[in-house]
Amino acid sequence: MSGSLAGKVALVTGASRGIGRATAIALAKEGASVVVNYVSSVGAAEEVVKEIGANRSVAIKADVSEINEIMDLIQQVVKKFGKIDIVVLNAGLLWQNGALNNIDENAFDKIFQTNVKGPFFLVQEAAKHIPDGGRILLFSTSLTSVSMITPNYLLYVTTKGAVEQMTRVMAKDLGKRGITVNTISPGPISTDTYFVGKTEEMIKLQRTFAPANRIGKAEEVADVITFMASKKSQWINGQNIQINGGMTVG
Fold first, then answer.
1. Strand order across the beta sheet in which 135-139 lies
2. CA 105 from centroid of its chain's CA atoms
3. What are phi and psi of 149, to 5 degrees?
4. How far apart are CA 46 and CA 44, in angstroms?
5. CA 210, CA 146: separation in Å to the nearest integer?
6. What is the CB-side half-sphere exposure of residue 183 using CA atoms within 13 A?
7. Closest alpha carbon to 163 in 171, 174, 175
8. For residue range 100-140, what is the model confidence (pLDDT) as tens digits?
9. Can you spell out the DSSP letters for 209-222?
10. Alpha helices, DSSP H only, in 53-153?
11. Is 183 helix (H, G, I), strand (E, B) or coil?
12. Catalytic residue among 33, 156, 194, 230
């Protein structure tokens, strides 16, 4: 298989749908073998594997908010492919009812376990099997820097702020081995998750946030991730890559 990622092994969490699905397929088109991680959507995950080809892809079920399942996932990947060159930590929990008075301890713990604790320990475990020059891509959101954010995103954005700080420090640590660690921060992207709980009026308004007056596409995020996974991005490390069509600038 030819391509800029030929011979590479990529692990994409939450890869059965949305941005994760688009990313898995984009990485495979560039020659990578891809692990399609999922937590419940086995049918959708198998469809991704079918599209890529079973000779270069495998679906592995694991809840990447649970440390024991993280350990098992990494072991399965290494057993199958022998290494992990690219880690894309797409899986996460979106919380849209997080105004201060609505947050209890259970909600706080659940979203931090999924969005912060899980990615932290997955990187820790995966790094043992990433050759020098590998790539790690975490996920935040453009909401961490946009000024018109509403209070209901308080808990979600708090976790993503933690991810951005993890990225800055991990980039220094793993950069000694030529492994780059960066964060991908999409704006509104047309996925199933994005449309949950939104009225047509809300969607119409959010289209206006970008100068092009539209919502982004999952494939547009996947294209950036594919570049970040390649050799061409070697000198980009510790950065927050915002993909939002100009919703935030500067």
1. 57-61, 33-38, 9-12, 86-88, 135-139, 180-186, 240-243
2. 25
3. -65, 145
4. 5
5. 12
6. 26
7. 171
8. 898 999 999 999 999 999 999 999 999 999 999 999 999 99
9. TSTT-S-B-HHHHH
10. 67-81, 105-112, 118-126
11. strand
12. 156
What predicted TM-score, i.e. pTM, was given to this entire model? 0.95
Q: What is the pLDDT of residues 151-196, one digit of tens each?
A: 888 999 999 999 999 999 999 999 999 999 999 999 999 998 888 8
**Spelled out in words, what is the top-level CATH class assigned to the domain 9-243?**
alpha beta
Q: Are strands 86-88 and 9-12 parallel, antiparallel or unpaired?
A: parallel
Q: Degrees (nearest 5) of the Cα angle 33, 82, 126?
A: 85
Asked if residue 48 lies in contact with residue 57, where contact means CB atoms within 8 angstroms, the answer is yes
Respond yes or no: is residue 142 known to be catalytic: yes
Write down the catalytic residue from 142, 185, 230, 233.
142
- 217 catalytic residue (yes or no): no
At residue 142's C-alpha, the angle toward residues 220 and 156, to 5°, is 120
Structure tokens at 188: 């509104």
The answer to whether 40 touches 117, Cβ cutoff 8 Å, is no
Helix (H, G, I), strand (E, B) or coil at 146: coil
Q: How many residues does the chain have?
A: 250
| Two tokens, residue 166 | 């993890």
Q: Which of 160, 194, 230, 233 is catalytic?
A: 160
Query: Which residue, 188, 193, 248, is CA-closest to 220?
Result: 188
Token pair listed for 126 = 């995966």
> Which helix (H) or strand (E) element contains residue 52?
helix 42-52
Task: Render pLDDT for 49-104 as a digit per residue (tens, 0 to 9).
Answer: 999 999 999 999 999 999 999 999 999 999 999 999 999 999 999 877 878 898 99
